[in-house]
Amino acid sequence: MRHKIGVPRGILRHITLILLNETPLSGSEISEEIYSYMEWKPSPGSIYPLLSNLQEEGLIEPAEDSDPTLKRFSLTKKGEIEIEIHRHHDQEIRNRSKNIRKIYWQLLRRMSERLYESYVALQDQIEKTYSSSEDMEGLKAILDEATSKLRKMVENNIE
């Protein structure tokens, strides 16, 4: 069964540039990497014309590779600048995510407004803490503790 996802316009371009900024990849590797993050796999008809356009624009270039069977690409300096210019997609993704989680939790799961506000506040605080803190182990410990307490609540309700 194929999953349909509302992917924001231009996001495939943005994600591809970000992935190529990390390591040289081929078109098929880009598709697989995107699929590892979400249950959506761009088709070759989307990836290869995009790679061709990015190369024509000077944002990516073929990478030297030890595997001659794969044509991998890497980001150019111009491509790095392009990523910075398009950081507005980050906020677009956050906004879309907030809308989807509200539909899911309040409309489909019938979560009360009061509980939903606490849930959103927790997610927002996690994001702020992650963005501004260097104590990732401390953040992980807090999240692990909260997860453990929630598991115990579920186990107690089952028994």
Textual characterization of the structure:
The protein has 159 residues and is mainly alpha-helical. It folds into two domains: 11-86, Orthogonal Bundle (Arc Repressor Mutant, subunit A), CATH 1.10.10.10; 89-158, no CATH class. 69% of the residues lie in helices and 4% in strands. It has seven helices and two strands. It has helices at 11-22, 27-37, 44-56, 77-85, 88-108, 113-132, 136-158; strands at residues 60-62, 73-75. A two-stranded antiparallel sheet has the order 1-2. α1 (11-22) packs across α4 and α2 (27-37) packs across α3 (44-56). The longest helix is centred in the last third of the chain and has 23 residues, at 136-158. The protein is elongated, with a radius of gyration of 20 Å.
Proportion in β-strands: under 5%
N-to-C SSE string, H for helix and E for strand: HHHEEHHHH
H/I helix tally: 7
What would you say the CATH architecture of the largest domain is? Orthogonal Bundle
What composes the largest sheet? 2 strands, antiparallel
- Quickly name the level 1 CATH class of the largest domain: Mainly Alpha
Molecular shape: elongated
Report how far apart the termini are: 35 Å
Mean of the pLDDT scores?
88
Q: What's the name of the CATH homologous superfamily of the largest domain? A: Winged helix-like DNA-binding domain superfamily/Winged helix DNA-binding domain
The name of the CATH topology of the largest domain is Arc Repressor Mutant, subunit A
Class from secondary-structure proportions: mainly alpha
- Kindly give the count of domains: 2
How many β strands by DSSP? 2
Strand order of the largest sheet: 1-2
Q: Residue share in helices?
A: 55-70%
Low-confidence segments, ≥5 residues, pLDDT <50? none
Compute the gyration radius: what is it?
A: 20 Å
